[in-house]
Amino acid sequence: MLLSFAVAFMLAACGGGGGDSGGATTTGGSQAAPSAASSPAAASSPSESGASAPLAASSPAPASGATSTVLPVIAPSGSVFYGMNGHINAAGPYTTSTPAQQLAQLKDLNVTLYRNDVSNVAGAQKLASVAQSMAQSGVTVYPVILQQLNFPDENAAYQASYTLAQQIVNVQHYAYYEVTNELAPECLVGWVDGASSTDYRNDCFQIARGVIRGLIAGIKSVDPVGKIIIGGNTWMHLGLDVMLANGTQPDGTSGHPVVTWDITAWHWYSEQGDITHACGTLCYNVIGTLQSFGKPIWINEVGMRPDFPGTADQAATFMANNMMGTLLAIAPQYNVQSLQVYELYDDPPTGQGPYGIMLNDGVTTKPTYAAVKNFIATHPR
Questions:
Q1: Whole-number Cα distances in Å, 157 to 152, 160, 209, 230
Q2: pLDDT truncated to tens, each residue of the chain (381 aa)?
Q3: What is the 3-state secondary structure (H, E, C) of 312-379?
Q4: What residues make up the domain containing 92?
Q5: Could you report how far apart the first and last alpha carbons of the chain are, in Å?
Q6: Is residue 343 within 8 Å of 1, Cβ to Cβ?
Q7: 275-278 contacts: CB < 8 A, separation 24 or more?
Q8: Domain holding 117: CATH number?
Q9: Does residue 295 fall inside a structural domain?
Q10: Is there a domain that residue 47 lies in?
Q11: With b meaning 16 or more CB within 10 Å and e meaning fewer, what string describes 243-268?
């Protein structure tokens, strides 16, 4: 998960989240805004929009600060199918548990990706140190670059995000960079599905687009070969990505800058049901819409809500069978190339909630830990 945003009855987290099981705008955890063509096709049917080349001429002038320094790349040497979420830059168990202890736990689980959020240079330096040490043991760290939406307009959002991305990438190059986390719920007009362009506020969407475009351009100015993961959203909040890919926006206009990316990320939690037929006001083949972008899909937050209505053992069984098992079964059909559990440790009592597969002492495992470990062992990829 990443940083969280509370919205009505839901909690959105960046790499872990919260929320109740009923609302159409329920968000996932996280590493903690048109025209008809910009919306997913009618209910139960995926949008057919594909990502096209960016409109460079329409971009604000880039900020300065690119570097020519060649940095080593943190890149995987094998499979990236199973991963874990963490918060190396957060307080609590990720501070009291050393990187070596976290690495030992990740190796015990046999996960090979470790998703972590970063939002400034100091965090980038800490993350780089951990990534370099873990890479020697076969665990690949990749960053989720977080940015707020408190900008006056799209141009300001673009420029600030361009500079932030340059600063972070100048610290360390990675094979993958995720840009933002769960921005969609911040721009929703209310308690809506989030699948249609009209579910979003136009001004907020434009600023979100500026943030995303600026981060991507800033990354590419320093590391042109790193792959871009579009920041994961969750539930039925498809409209934001569809508009980015189409060059449309909530006011019904088109011809705006088109955003391109290499990997489509999404988040799925225990109360959200069938990802091929998720229902709010209407029902949607969420994974089908994601597939229509023509990119590999990473479900990079797969998690259990703390309010799951059952015992800890029942939650573990649900995680293995109904979450990881169900997603693995459809992976070939929808080009799902990675499943990443949310998250390693529970948050402290003041945090987003006990989303972890371990307690917030960083030592004690929960039944879900064994379930995840056994699932990976019996379903190698």
A1: 8, 5, 8, 17
A2: 444 333 332 333 343 343 333 334 344 444 443 232 333 333 333 333 333 233 333 344 444 444 445 788 999 999 999 999 999 999 899 999 999 999 999 999 999 999 999 999 999 999 999 999 999 999 999 999 999 999 999 999 999 999 999 999 999 999 999 999 999 999 999 999 999 999 999 999 999 999 999 999 999 999 999 999 999 999 999 999 999 999 999 999 999 999 999 999 999 999 999 999 999 999 999 999 999 999 999 999 999 999 999 999 999 999 999 999 999 999 999 999 999 999 999 999 888 999 999 999 999 999 999 999 999 999 999
A3: HHHHHHHHHHHHHHHHHHHHHHHCEEEEEEECCECCCCCCCCCCCCECCCCCCECHHHHHHHHHHHHC
A4: 34-378
A5: 23
A6: yes
A7: 275/326, 275/327, 275/330, 276/330, 277/44, 278/235, 278/236
A8: 3.20.20.80
A9: yes
A10: yes
A11: bbbbbbbbeeeeebbbbbbebbbbbb
Q: Which tokens in the block code for residue 355?
A: 């989303």
Strands (DSSP E) along 223-312, which ranges? 227-234, 263-269, 278-279, 283-284, 297-303
Cα(71)–Cα(298) distance, rounded to whole angstroms?
26
Element (H, E) at 19: strand 18-19
> Has residue 15 been placed in a domain?
no
Number of domains in the chain: 1
Exposure string of 186-200, with b = 16+ CB inside 10 Å and e = fewer, is bbbeebbbbbbbbbb
Query: What's the pTM value of the predicted model, to 2 decimals?
Result: 0.86
- What contacts 88, CB < 8 A, 6 or more positions away? 94, 99, 102, 116, 126, 127, 130, 141
Residue 340 near residue 372, CB atoms below 8 Å: no
Count other Cβ atoms within 10 Å, centred on residue 129: 14
Distance from C-alpha of 10 to C-alpha of 101, rounded to nearest angstrom: 32
The answer to whether position 2 is within a domain reads no
- What pLDDT, on a 0 to 100 scale, did the predictor assign at position 102? 98
Cα-Cα-Cα-Cα dihedral sign, residues 85, 88, 90, 95: positive
Cβ atoms within 10 Å, residue 130: 23
Per the structure block, which two tokens stand in for 242?
């569809």
Predicted pLDDT at 256: 98
- For residues 259 and 215, is the Cβ–Cβ distance under 8 A? no
